[in-house]
């Protein structure tokens, strides 16, 4: 038989300290996870916008006869791929990144083709922060109002713009083997 009496003689950690510090740890963990989620979303948007712009450049046609094909097929297909990549079709990713909706706009009117990707996020709604009135918390600080609106009211809007040159080739792009 093992003698475990030495364990009873040692002083343990105060329960009060553990009980008081654990919620602080959880709060910091939630903030860090949400900030990490925004960083992941920003990087995914940069990659998705580059993909959309490059694909539109290589496969989109400049002549008027190709504009209908660009709108009906190419833009819809690019939107579907970007939506899948950003995580709108995955419930776990959509919840983790607080995704609401996105828009992908292609503007070919200028010298450059402008591809704009906007993602709208839901507010994280951290309960203990949103219980207080924003006018009492912020007291005239505009940056505080903006942060409070993101956390509790409206969520956020992240925008990425990519410029690509025109594709003057009349033949469709074929990926090399």
Oligomeric state:
single chain
SSE arrangement, N to C = HHHHEEHHHE
The helix fraction, in percent, is: 55-70%
Most strands sheet? 3 strands, antiparallel
Taking strands numbered 1, 2, ... along the chain, how are they ordered across the largest sheet? 1-2-3
Residue-averaged pLDDT, rounded?
83
Number of domains: 1
What is the radius of gyration computed over CA atoms, rounded to a whole number of angstroms?
A: 25 Å
| Beta content | 5-15%
Give the end-to-end Cα distance, rounded to a whole number of Å. Answer: 71 Å
Count the DSSP helices.
Answer: 7
Morphology call: elongated
Number of strands: 3
Low-confidence stretches: none
Q: What structural class do helix, strand and pairing data support?
A: alpha+beta
What's the helix and strand layout?
Elements: H1 5-9, H2 15-59, H3 64-86, H4 91-96, E1 99-107, E2 113-121, H5 127-130, H6 134-138, H7 142-153, E3 157-164
Description of the structure:
The chain has seven helices and three strands, in the order H-H-H-H-E-E-H-H-H-E. By secondary structure, it is an alpha+beta fold. The chain has one domain (15-164). The chain has a three-stranded antiparallel β-sheet. A hairpin with a 5-residue loop joins strand 1 and strand 2 (113-121). Helix 2 (15-59) packs antiparallel against helix 3 (64-86). The longest helix is centred in the first third of the chain and has 45 residues, at 15-59.
């Amino acid at each position: 038989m093992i003698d475990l009496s030495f364990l009873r003689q040692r002083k343990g950690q105060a329960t009060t300290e553990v009980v008081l510090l654990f919620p602080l740890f959880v709060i910091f963990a939630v903030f860090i996870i949400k900030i990490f989620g925004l960083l992941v979303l920003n990087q995914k948007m940069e990659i998705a916008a580059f993909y959309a712009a490059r694909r539109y450049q290589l496969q989109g046609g400049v002549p008027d006869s190709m504009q209908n094909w660009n709108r009906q097929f190419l833009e819809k297909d690019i939107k579907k791929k970007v939506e899948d990549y950003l995580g709108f079709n995955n419930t776990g990713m959509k919840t983790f990144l607080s995704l609401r909706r996105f828009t992908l706009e292609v503007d070919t009117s200028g010298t450059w083709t402008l591809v704009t990707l906007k993602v709208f996020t839901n507010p994280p709604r951290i309960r203990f922060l949103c219980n207080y009135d924003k006018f009492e918390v912020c007291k005239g600080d505009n940056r505080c109002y903006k942060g409070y609106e993101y956390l509790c009211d409206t969520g956020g809007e992240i925008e990425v713009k990519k410029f690509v040159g025109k594709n003057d080739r009349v033949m469709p792009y074929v990926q090399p083997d």
